[in-house]
Amino acid sequence: MDGCTCSCAVGSLVSWRVVARGDAAVTRHCSGCGRDRAFASSGRFRVNASGRCLDVWLIYRCGSCGRTWNRAVHERVRPESLGADLERFHRNDPALAARCAGTGGDCSDYEVIGPIGRPLRVRLTVEGAVTVRLDRLLANQLGVSRAALAPMVSADANLRRPVRDGTVVVIHGCPTRR
Predict the structure, then answer these.
(1) Distances (CA, A) of 22 to 68, 102, 106, 150, 171
(2) Do 131 and 89 sit in the same domain of this protein?
(3) Distance between CA 124 and CA 20 in Å, rounded?
(4) Same domain for 123 and 157?
């Protein structure tokens, strides 16, 4: 199979959790410091009513001086359109705050949790704002170069894109550790 010297077949589906280490930071001008600084999510929301509509913001803090900045999550939406998330915004749900913070910054520091067997059929579950490319993640996990990885991966996988939650990748052949 694709240069594999053993008699392997693609096994059952395994899951890899790709977890961001730390929160995604947003770099912006801080009026307290007078320069561009990294703002990190406080994990807290502000919900404000304006007539029959709501605004929801995620509160960020400057890493240097602590000044806050409210990043819009929802603007001028009807409460019923938020469904169960409305109560989660009011409770400052940590998982929801992490998910919302993950869309605002960049995080290429991650870890992968899951078995490494050969051959593989892998489903990726992405937690947090992970921006690593699929080819880099797979090559690092399997211990092969990205050039050696390309012919081993199913043709429908777009290796140059960032990893996405729910992606399934079939790796043919038996990669050997570098």
Answers:
(1) 19, 10, 11, 30, 29
(2) no
(3) 13
(4) yes
Number of domains in the chain: 2
Q: What pLDDT shows up at residue 5?
A: 44
Phi then psi dihedrals of residue 14, to 5 deg = -115, 160
Domain boundary (102, 121, 138) is at: 102
Phi-psi region of 94 (alpha: psi -120 to 50; beta: other; left: phi over 0): alpha
pLDDT over 70, % of the chain: 79
| DSSP bridge pairs for 50 | 53
Question: What SS3 class is residue 130?
Answer: coil
Residues 29 and 96 in one domain: yes
Whether the predicted pLDDT of 13 surpasses 60? yes
Contact predicate 74/96, CB 8 Å: no
Q: What is the pLDDT of residues 91-147, one digit of tens each?
A: 999 888 887 876 544 455 677 888 776 667 888 888 766 667 888 888 888 888 888
Looking at residue 8, its pLDDT comes to: 47
169, β-bridge pairs: 122
Distance between CA atoms of 73 and 55, rounded to whole angstroms? 8
Q: Which two tokens stand for residue 51?
A: 């007539």
